[in-house]
Design a protein that fits this description.
Rossmann fold; 22% helix; 5 helices; alpha/beta; 12 strands; 180 residues; binds magnesium ion; binds adenosine-5'-diphosphate; binds zinc ion
């Protein structure tokens, strides 16, 4: 175990708020700095491409697909930085996994929805936010009124927490429009 402890930086917000774009921007900077990182995404997210992380405006970076949080350990070789997109979809062990990784000196950049479609904290995100070093809350534009949006509204009547989709299933709304 190294002396140096890692840190957790989180990019959160609603759907369409630019989390993935911001994550890709930070990873491209790491490329310029010639720093090694590995990007993970949960298998449940197959909206655009299976082996890439893709933003809504089609920017992309190669990713390693994992089905559970603990898979991260076996994929790390000599990277000192790992990134995760759609972290809210991973199982609740993600919190313990991240704590162990920072103990081992690995830095984590993590993007995910802070709230589900009901406006409730999503998956491991609240616990990870609590132990994070830095948080960037992103905002979308309200689909209904154009104000700053921080809620993800589900357009159909499905009630399970995880329902993969994009504009066919969800829209970003401000607080006023969300609670209407
Ligand atoms: P996230 O990962 O947070 O869901 P992305 O980074 O994939 O978001 O996509 C953000 C992009 O989505 C914006 O740059 C913009 O091009 C597009 N977009 C579509 N609808 C909206 C909206 N209502 N508000 C903001 N951006 C939107
Ligand atoms: Mg995204
Ligand atoms: Zn609104």
């Amino acid at each position: 175990m190294k002396n140096h402890k890692g840190k957790i930086d989180i990019i959160c917000g609603s759907m369409f708020s630019g989390k993935t774009e911001e994550l890709i921007r930070r990873l491209k900077r790491l490329d310029f700095a010639k720093k090694k990182y590995k990007l993970f995404k949960p298998i449940v997210d197959n909206r655009y491409d299976n082996k890439k992380v893709v933003s809504h405006n089609m920017n992309s970076v190669q990713a390693t697909i994992i089905s559970k949080s603990e898979d991260i350990y076996k994929h790390i070789k000599n990277e000192n930085i790992i990134a995760i997109d759609e972290a809210q979809f991973l199982d609740e062990k993600l919190y313990e996994v991240c704590k162990k990784l920072i103990e081992d000196g690995i830095d984590i950049i993590l993007a995910g929805l802070d709230m589900d479609y009901k406006g409730e904290p999503f998956g491991s995100m609240p616990k990870l936010l609590a132990i994070s070093n830095d948080v960037k809350k992103m905002h979308a534009v309200c689909f209904d009124c154009g104000e700053t949006a921080n809620y993800t509204f589900r357009i159909n009547n499905d009630t399970q927490q995880v329902l993969i989709g994009s504009k066919e299933n969800y829209k970003a709304l401000c607080k006023n429009c969300f609670f209407k």
